[in-house]
Amino acid sequence: MTSLKEKIYSQIDGMEKELISYAQELIKFPTVSGQEKEAQEYVRKVLEKDLGFDEIDIWEPDIEEMRGHKAFITQREDFKGSPNVVGTLKGAGGGKSIILNSHIDVVPEGSHDEWCHPPFQGEVAEGKIYGRGASDMKVTKASFFIALKALQQLGLKLKGDVLIQSVIEEEAGSAGTLACVLRGYKADAAILPEPSVFKICPATQGSTWFRVNLYGLSAHGGKRYEGVSALEKLPQVISTIQQLEIYRNEKYAHPLYKDVPIPFCINIGNVEGGSWPSTVPEKVSIEGRMGIPPAEELEDGWRMFEEWIDKTAETDAWMKEHKPDVEWFGAFWGSGQIDMEHPIVKTAEQSYQEVTGMSPVLAGTPWATDARVLIDFADTPALVFGPGHTAHCPDEYMVVEDLVNYTKMLASMLVDWCGYQE
Questions:
Q1: I want to staple 66 with a disulfide (CB 3.0 to 4.6 A). Which of 72, 202, 206, 348 is the partner?
Q2: Whether residue 400 sits in one domain with residue 341
Q3: In the chain, what percentage of residues exceed pLDDT 90?
């Protein structure tokens, strides 16, 4: 390890209280969808006042501008009160640029009775910061702030530009990052600190929600033989989906998912049907989530699923004449990947090894991220790499030591990737 890196790490160790303070302030904003404005104003203020960013762009994405784009999905009618923030710190020149992208929105906290620590206070206990967004993923913005601040206090000027993107709507379909792309933001690489437990993830899988409707013929329950139960057709369809999951995981086997029991899951999460205990159910619907492997286009995954359901219907006399239909609804995310030998991957590996003394682990994410939008539509190689162990659950937390170490890794990556001058 160079003496410069030692100075950087020592500087960050001395800024731990400030790092925690930023993290706590971010958690205190209850940034569920539609309530991001105050938090984004706080981010803008930090970029401007604390870090001296040259350019700060804050705007509410235009839904009409995004309509028709293949990656656009939203349940909202507009984004009023939900701005994006992009700050640009200009480099001295001659270095590579980087985007640090993290979403400000969080999933709802659920019942407060399930939390031992308040979801929006940023309480610190036993070496952990608790709260919604502690792991997924508001708190890593604090790492952005302190990593840059530490370099500035050491008198280091990065050569490449640094863009911090604080985006909305990641949890509901990536509209915030898509809006950044359509506004023209791109870089030589991007880091997304999703809670990967320090695994370095060049691949991110996508996901999509499906609904399968099965049809029968209603009749009085006392003479059920005069009807056809849609419910009784369900086992055939579930068996088909289970076989499809096996097939897809064999077809799209990927080295970054080799240690995952089921890399690309198809989950049935909801079943609904029937209208009365004494009536043969004429319609049953199942809803679920299908993973999209990094090597597959979203539309190809949809087509495969529909074909398998159609083939099952052909094996049943009733379903052949009364075919199930498939709907794709709600949220969807495409998959994305970059080369495992890409320089940004190597930079992340080196920073992890320098800080921890251990060999890094390369993997693929088990969930969708905004990385795909940057990779496919901004020509920006994007890497998922972050601390964090929990997400979407009560008592979400971030280990303070992990946050400090991640800040060191980030600072190390900025110096190595962007270059610097004293």
A1: 72
A2: yes
A3: 96
With a CB cutoff of 8 Å and minimum separation 6, the contacts of 79 are 60, 61, 62, 63, 168, 169, 175
Q: Which pLDDT belongs to residue 331?
A: 83
Residue 34, amino acid: G
The residue range of the domain holding 103 is 3-204+335-421
Full-model pTM: 0.94
Active-site positions read: 105, 170
With a cut of 70, say whether residue 194 has pLDDT above it.
yes
Q: Which one, of 192, 176, 187, 92, lies nearest residue 141 by Cα? A: 192
The token duo for 174 is: 């990536």
pLDDT tens digit string along 358-405? 999 999 999 999 999 999 999 999 999 999 988 899 999 999 999 999
Same domain, 222 and 197: no
Distance, CA of 140 to CA of 146 (rounded, Å): 10
H or E element: which one contains 306? helix 298-314
**CATH number of domain containing 42:** 3.40.630.10
- Residues 291 and 166 both lie in one domain: no
Residue 40 pLDDT more than 90? yes
Name the residue among 174, 169, 202, 128 with its Cα closest to residue 388: 128
Q: Which residue, of 302, 333, 364, is where some domain finishes?
A: 333
Report the CATH number that the domain containing residue 328 is assigned in CATH: 3.30.70.360
Answer yes or no: do 77 and 219 share one domain.
no
Structure tokens at 299: 């539309």
Taking residues 10-28, what's their average pLDDT?
A: 98
Classify burial at 63, counting beta carbons within 10 Å of its beta carbon; exposed 0-12, middle 13-18, buried 19 or more. Answer: middle
Whether 344 contacts 189, CB under 8 Å: yes
DSSP state at residue 228: B
- Same domain, yes or no, for 173 and 280? no
Q: Is the domain of 218 the same as that of 86?
A: no
Rounded to 5°, the CA angle 379-70-63 comes to 100
Axis-axis angle for helices 140-153, 3-13 (nearest 10): 120
User: Cβ–Cβ contacts within 10 Å for residue 44, how many?
Assistant: 19
Q: Which of 194, 184, 11, 12 lies closest to 88 in space, CA to CA?
A: 184
- How many domains are there within the chain? 2
Q: Are residues 128 and 115 in the same domain?
A: yes
Express each pLDDT in 276-326 by its tens digit. Answer: 999 999 999 999 999 999 999 999 999 999 999 999 999 999 999 999 999
